[in-house]
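Section 5.1 Outputs to date
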Amino acid sequence: MNVAIHQPNYFPWLGYFAKIAQADIFIFLDDVQLPQGRSYVHRTMVHGNADGVWLSAPIRREERQPIKDVRFADDNWRHRHRMTLLHTYRKAPFFDPVMAMLNGIFAFDTDSLSRFNMNAVASVADYLGLDCRFELASSFGVTAVSDDRLIALVQVVGGNTYISGAGGQNYQHPEKFEEAGIDLQVRPYKPLPYRQIHDGFLPGLSVLDALFNLGPDAVRQLSYESAATPSPSV
């Protein structure tokens, strides 16, 4: 039983969905503290004329706030983000079907950042045909921290393999996973270049870029077979 765990990010990059594609169960780590400063939990990057353009959802910040308690500061950002996507991708091959899906996602009625993000991730995964069960870390009441928390979450859902991105190597202790009988698999992800609507290939963008350019075939970008070096966005 393969398990992957990650914070509920805002329209995350392809590497996030590569972990979902490898997992039987994906746990949204919604009960950890919201990262300080700029974070992929409430922003993502799409393609501009030549460089990336940030889409940031405004949030209300409080001290030591868990992600599950974060609320949007207003609702106008939904319209702004839709307009940016329209301006950026209106000439992309799969603009119409992908924008139709996104209209449904943006219409999801919630002021919760985590709920919006989890619904968006699940909707994109469904569009890509990924067969994975989603769970919320907050529903299990695990109080351990760092890699002990990850081990406990894998155990509580009955997993025996934990799929980690390269970034986990900064704090994970392989011997702990081994002692717990869990196979720790660190899988660095590097996306295959694909044709984007602007010249050149800009890696690390939101999954939305691949969807607009490739449609359902974006699922082919989720393989680890071509991964050669770790990406800082894992």
